Amino acid sequence: MARVTRYSKFEGELDQLDSGELMQMIQEALLGQGMNDPYDPDPNARPSMDDLFDAILEALADRGMIPEDLLAEAMQADDVRETRLGQQIERLMDRLQQDGFIRKEFDDQEEGQGGQGEGGEAKFQLTDKSIDFLGYKSLRDLMGGLGRSSAGAHDTREYASGVEMTGELKNYEFGDMLNLDTTATLGNIMGKGFDQLEESDLVIRQAEYNSSAATVVLLDCSHSMILYGEDRFTPAKQVALALAHLIRTQYPGDSVKFVLFHDSAEEVPISRLAQAQIGPYHTNTAGGLRLAQQLLKRENKDMKQIVMITDGKPSALTLPDGRIYKNAYGLDPYVLGATLREVANCRRSGIQVNTFMLARDPELVGFVRRVSEMTRGKAYFTTPYNIGQYVLMDFMTNKTKLVN
């Protein structure tokens, strides 16, 4: 359980609250479903400044950080924004903007009116600083359950000749990189002489080798991801942000892109990922795989992989004329056939598909196993509570490659 800090010492003033602490307090609201209506025609529309105000108010109330006199005044007021508490929350929002965590924006129509609009119509966008903060926080939380090893530390039994010399000695074999161990090699030369020297008398020091990787994270945002009283999409986004932060800080030679799939599929920049929302969509797995392949074809990396996070069976398909064919009941043979053809294309392109499944429906288990077998990938049946540890450890394990 997270430690709760109470700020009753402020005695009516919350202005001393640090922006970083405030961002941590409202992290769940920023990543979760609370700022958008999942049935909105545009589920990925930017949340409003009113949404941000409500999120801060709720976070302060949940933590018992509102002094009693301000709380009593707010409870009797028709509009909290007109009270002293509302004014302090407005100042906290201004500080988030001044410190570079959010960017306040208006619709084009409002900007045409001099950039002034009603308070409820003002929107906000998370900045790169916010995305980095949320990614770091998610990574720290997820890696905290993996033991004492810090993020990016590779514990592995495999070594290769090249890169960082930390491994054991071995006799040279054709194809090895010449990371010669001078002492051991000279010892063999002195013992046998140059005339009798053989290739195997050269001694090299093995080294850990980290392959370069291009990753596309496929996130299912069909409506089932928030059905049955469980939000599965927020943990999936936290995992994606944590993976992006891990790659940026520990593996700068790698690349990662994100694709949302539902009735169709689209790439989403990391700046919009945190606030992506669920919609009343079906599951177009084939469309997601097709787009992921297109993105990976542009990358020149040792390893190309798709990390697919989903909880449902394929139930939609984009037809050649652009129409969406849908069947939410069972595994439709037409949808399944098209999806497996995309899986086969991944195999031919050398793309591994690792699937992290948040459900255990028998038909779904069978489908996921076929995908894994076809691409020599892995299938993990996880929960929203442990998916992050599975994804991060799988990525770091795959990063280590043996080349001799």
Largest sheet: 6 strands, mixed
Query: How far apart are the first and last residues' alpha carbons, in Å?
Result: 46 Å
What would you say the CATH architecture of the largest domain is? 3-Layer(aba) Sandwich
Number of domains: 3
The proportion of strand residues reads 5-15%
Secondary structure: number of strands: 12
Class derived from helix and strand content: alpha/beta
Q: CATH superfamily membership of the largest domain, which one?
A: von Willebrand factor, type A domain
The gyration radius over C-alpha positions equals 26 Å
List the total number of helices: 14
What coarse outline follows from CA principal-axis ratios? flat
Describe the structure.
InterPro entries: VWF_A, vWFA_dom_sf. It comes from Deinococcus phoenicis. Residues 212-395 form the VWFA domain. It holds the Pfam family VWA_2. With 404 residues, the chain is of the alpha/beta class. It folds into 3 domains: 9-126; 169-205, no CATH class; 213-398, Rossmann fold (3-Layer(aba) Sandwich). Helix content is 39%, strand content 14%. Strands 7-6-5-8-11-12 form a 6-stranded mixed β-sheet, sandwiched between helices. It has a two-stranded antiparallel sheet with strand order 1-2. Strand 5 (213-220), helix 9 (233-250) and strand 6 (255-261) form a beta-alpha-beta unit. Helix 9 runs parallel beside helix 14 (387-398) and helix 12 packs parallel to helix 13. It is flat and about 95 Å long. The model is unreliable at 1-12, 109-120 and 145-166 (pLDDT under 50).
